Amino acid sequence: MEKKATRRVPWLVWMLARFLAAVGLVSRSSRFSWMTRGRCSSPRRLPKVKDSDLDLVQMGRESELREWKAKLRRDLYVLRLIKGCLAVSAVGLVVGGLYVYRQGFGNYRRLCPKQRSYTETLAGNGFMTPYEPYIGAFTELMSGHGGRDATQDPETGLNVRRLQHTCAEALKFEQVGLLFLTHEPVKNEAAWRKWFEGARGRIPFGHGRLGKCLNGIGAGGNPVDLMDMSGLMGACGVDQEAANPIESQFLFDVWVHLKKGEDSKMFRGSIFESSLIPDQYRVDSTWGGHSLIDATRVLFAAALANPFVSKMVLVSDSDVPLYGPLMVYKQLLSEPKSRVNACNTTTGWDRDLYRLRHDFIEEGISEELWRKSWQWTALERRHVHLVVQDTYVDEIFRSLCRPRWDAEWCDFRVCYSDEHYIPTLLAKHGLDHETDCSGELTDRDWSRVAPTSAHPYEYKANDISEELFESLRHPERKGCEQAMEIQSGLSGHFTTADRLVAKASQGRAWRPSEGGRVDTCQLVRDVTFNRIPSYLPLNSRCPLLARKFSRETADLVDALAGWMYGEVGRVDVP
User: Fold this and answer.
1) Is the per-residue pLDDT at 498 higher than 90?
2) Alpha-carbon gap, residue 285 to 259, rounded angstroms
3) What is the phi/psi pair of residue 501, to 5°?
4) Is the sign of the CA dihedral 457, 458, 462, 466 positive or negative?
5) CA quadruple 233, 234, 239, 243: dihedral positive or negative?
6) HSE of 570 in the Cβ direction (CA atoms, 13 Å)?
7) Taking the C-alpha atoms of 437, 305, 237 and 188 in order, what is their torsion angle to the nearest 10 degrees?
8) I need a surface site. Which of 76, 202, 365, 533 has the fewest CB within 10 A?
9) Which of 442, 196, 197, 423 is nearest to 316 (CA)?
10) What pTM value is reported for the model?
């Protein structure tokens, strides 16, 4: 160390001087010789005049000698020009390297402070957490600004949404939240329209008041539950000719988050128009950024406002269902775990540990807690509550997880919150055992894109066929083989209000002495003929949706919808 300190000039300057001397722009005997003193070889020697030149003069060949020397001078000029370009390039590289060193490392802590207050960071993004205010706001909107019969703002369409929940409230059955995260209209809306047609007016037997009656049949009990048929028709009766099937079904609570600032008119006339999150609650979300988690939380808050939603599913605008609505509903509610991979024991699963930086570890996110899963998940209500109310893990990811070079932070990050935040949060709270350790809700094809691609393959028109959708269901996986047979036998698991009223008027359930009310459990026994419909659930590794389908595939997917979803709109109900 002491020897280096006694040098007159830094080694980098010395190397530059040696290079300039080598290319001939600086003489070794010039005023720069002090830089290379003791480091150069013997003094430069001048070339001697060759005898051959004198011989040429004596032989009278002066013209040949002049031509040869002119050519030599031209070659020397070219050589000096090349040397000059090399010298300029070297100087540029040295100066640039010094600048980058100084800006990127030398003054790192002065120019790029890593420590920022959480409040300042959130304020700069325009959103604060936790999201309890959103839950309260949506609850107020959906209940009519404090009164069930109050008039809603027609721009939000939430007055219609309130009618969707009256049936679930009357019969106390569970619903599934379908939460679309998009920046443009849903690409295959025609197929989704037919899909929701299959759920029009359907009421599930296995949940709520009707489910308790079925459980009573199995236990030999005789529960008493009287129900007013006129009230049932008012809550669960639907117009079979209504234009929008979403507004005539009770199994799914549908919400759509469009990027903040985008024109909602692009959804005008769409079946999803009344499901749009009002603009004042939307997030200016960007691909790969933590703002996607903010937008997801807004969707979660909207679904949590409905107390009957027990499972919440994130869906993209390029998704297509692989099964009918009755199958998706029954399968999701039969699964006790969330479809997300919050485990670190999944065979062959890459958690992308290279994205885990030392600052994550310093904040308490260790290698044992780092998780990765697909963005499109299906979460239990208790897990959604945790995501919405979290501040600690959200603060860490918001400040440290970034997918690109950030000039303000002077750092490059390869980290995507939408893949890591939710599974890591669940693992942090010790809930990894409450997930299915696979997260295979949505199928996607990575085999036809480059290994460095950020997006899966997008299906084209010539890819669409029955064989494609058969393969996307993965019948080769254990527990997925009998999926289509199970779907074809689901009619006994659902009924309609019209069917219940018709059966009550001609059966033993009618109770004139009780003001014309109906014995609900007797009605269920009459409808089901005292048989309890059984359902053998699929393996959680069987995907229920698939992506990515482009807009050009819409007509072809729509043409296959009847085959995929089991003759949409014609499923017989008891």
Assistant:
1) no
2) 6
3) -65, -45
4) positive
5) negative
6) 7
7) -50
8) 76
9) 442
10) 0.74
